[in-house]
Specification:
The N and C termini lie far apart (59 Å). This protein has 22 helices and 17 strands. 43% of the residues are buried. Residues 484-519 have low confidence and may be disordered. By secondary structure, the protein is of the alpha/beta class. The strands form six sheets. Strands 10-13-16-9-17 form a five-stranded parallel β-sheet. A three-stranded mixed β-sheet has the order 1-3-2, with helices on one face. The structure holds adenosine-5'-diphosphate and magnesium ion.
Amino acid sequence: MDLALGLPGFHLVGLPDHACNDARTRVLTAVRNSGYQLPQKKITVNLAPGDLRKQGVAFDLPIAVGILVAAGLVPLPERPPLVVGELALSGEVLPVRGVLPIGLEARRLGFQELIVPEPNAPEGALVQGLRVRGARTLAEAAETFSGTNLRAPASPAAQTAPAVTADLSEVRGQATAKWGLEIAAAGGHNALLIGPPGAGKTMLARRLPGLLPAMTFEEAVEATSIWSVAGRLQRGQGLLALRPFRAPHHTISVAGLIGGGTPLRPGEISLAHRGVLFLDELPEYGRAALEALRQPLEDGEVSLVRAQDRATMPARFMLLGAMNPCPCGHAADPDPDRCTCTLAAKEGYRRRVSGPILDRFDLHIEVGALPPADLLGQPQGEGSGPVRERVEGARALQRRRYAHIPGLHCNAQLSGPAARRLANATEEARSELAALIEIRGLSARAHDRMLKLARTIADLQGDERVGKAHVHEASQLRCLDRRVDGRPPPRVPQLQLARGAAVHRTPGEQPAGLPREGT
Ligand SMILES: Nc1ncnc2c1ncn2[C@@H]1O[C@H](COP(=O)(O)OP(=O)(O)O)[C@@H](O)[C@H]1O
Ligand SMILES: [Mg+2]
């Protein structure tokens, strides 16, 4: 900030974008309309660092306060607060997006005070250890800044009361699918629901957030920060109380899904951070959109680069998909004549969801058509509450087991080698798994995913070791491992399975497709 002798004028340097450049006019008019008399000097405002693009309108208020200080109209306090806000021409301070993350950053930088637009103050006050004061006008902001007339600190917005969510007990029948959802929730596994139209896939999916553990304070702050940057928080809204559930339509663009635009905005995957991203009718989504999900699914964040902008946004979510088993939807019907699709049509349909995305789903849950008796009878079965309690129990076991590994919280996050090292499977369970992989001709990845699932099933049952029964159950939650013609895999006599794959091999030989330990 510089006021120099010369032709009166106002220069903004340091790569301001359009909105920011308009700040020149807004700021000068607002200053004048607030009753301040600027000296007839040339004003230069440098937005540092020069190589970073400055976006948006939140710089109005700090620029205006800075000019008043430079002009000697407002005294500079010993420990200046951080200031954000947009200005109306009248001098009124208008709300901005992203106050929560700005507050977190201010605290990290060592600021003790933050001045924000009055409507944003309860949001900023969510940051503990930072005094946040709201200002309604430029004059109020300037007086609070200098300490000549302090506005009272804001109190944090109350956490939004959890909306009444859909309960699992409303879903009739579908015991297997519910069990699958519980396992997905317990281990944080991505899951795909497969079944005919009307079976209740969408209904089940919407009930997943209610089965997940409540967000920790840190998780809620992270999720709410993203919603704040996206401008999605209601006025006076506190931390998000429920894990987000995002269900974007299949016509969504890549930018809408992963983020983008000018200025950069978070996409659906970031809005789903710490919650659930639900892709209903999965094969209908554009290939580019599905491909764009791969990296974020791997990393838990997304890197966006647009011209001069770049940003990394958090995107750690559970992916839940739903699809029909074939174009007509009836491939898995007990009556084989019900399905009218050719084998080629079925294969083509499944290919629309590319292999690498299908491969991200630990569970493929079959949701059968609901028998009329189930639909007409009384709804029965557990509500979401008891299920969530079991999920919390299983999560606690995982946290304890992985306490020594930073960033690892649940079974779904285990890499293949880590799963093999840490699953604590019995010898019997391991040979059972090996046999299943060999019989079905599956890959090493399928092996590792089944092992992780078995680990979660054991955690839900409070079992320290993964046993044969857990492996068996896990194998039934991956129906896509079976052939596309819907026929079950070739049956193997129970006796052989029980003895494991060793019957087929000389000792020490590895079954095809099975990874060696440590590779
Ligand atoms: N298992 C079920 N229990 C209760 N209602 C169901 C069930 N399955 C389907 N329905 C009813 O049928 C409607 C359509 O279900 P939906 O979840 O959209 O099926 P899908 O997504 O598998 O096509 C639901 O809104 C619900 O009223
Ligand atoms: Mg549906």
